[in-house]
Amino acid sequence: MQDWNEWWQSALGQYVIEREQEYFDRTVANLFGYHAVQIGMSQFDFLRANRMPHHFHLGREVGAELCCDPTQVPLETSSVDLVVLPHVLDTSEHPHQVLREAERVLVPEGQLVVAGFNPWSLWGAKRYWARRNGAPWSANFVSLPRIKDWLELLGFEARTTQLAGYAPPFSQRHWLERFCFVEEAGRRWWPVAGGVYFLHATKRVRGMRLITPAWQQIQLRARLAALAEKNGVGAAARTIEQRSKSS
User: Fold this and answer.
1) pLDDT at position 175, please?
2) Rounded Cα gap, residues 61 and 66, in angstroms
3) What are the angstrom distances between the C-alpha of 160 and each of 43, 48, 79, 170, 197?
4) pLDDT, tens digit (0-9, with 9 covering 90-100), for 12-38
5) pLDDT class of 62 with cuts at 50, 70, 90
6) Per-residue confidence (pLDDT) for residue 188, from 0 to 100
């Protein structure tokens, strides 16, 4: 965790945080409910633009309001309206279990927002050459299609995805600033190659509704209409009464 804290304060870490803060501010601003929770990276407030009355942070970092393992969240089932997971899947040994816990604590139609490092990018290439030594190259770098598959199995519906951080992962700020033009070009020409991905999904709970055979009612109505036309309303009324007694 100390390596990660130091890296977030570096020029490259700040480059990532600026883009992630902008995305989260824009995305969570119009998500409504009562309870919103951010799991991980408690030193940054990615819920600051959200207008739910109750925000809190969970995680293993210093500053978290509740210290816990993201794979075992001490919250009641269906008790949270919004869950934000900034790079939790990257740093967890069991990312799928983290998503299961997020699904468990979310209410039906609850919102999930995930951020992570994209392995199909220049960042993923540097991770390969860095031999996964040190933050953030020691992270999992779970691909966006795999995250979407996991969420689909858990009953989530992906609403939007976005990528950012198209500049090469230079460690010096002046080089990052020199390649700032790559952001717009990357979004236009190679949108899948951003260093960081974002995903916004909704928890769907599909209920089961029994459908009675309507053809019997249609046949009965047709017979009653024929009787009423042939013999008058009285005969139809007697038929209805006899059917009701027999049922």
Assistant:
1) 85
2) 10
3) 26, 21, 24, 28, 11
4) 999 999 999 999 999 999 999 999 999
5) confident
6) 77
CA angle 147, 87, 125 (to 5 degrees): 75
Amino acid at 204: R
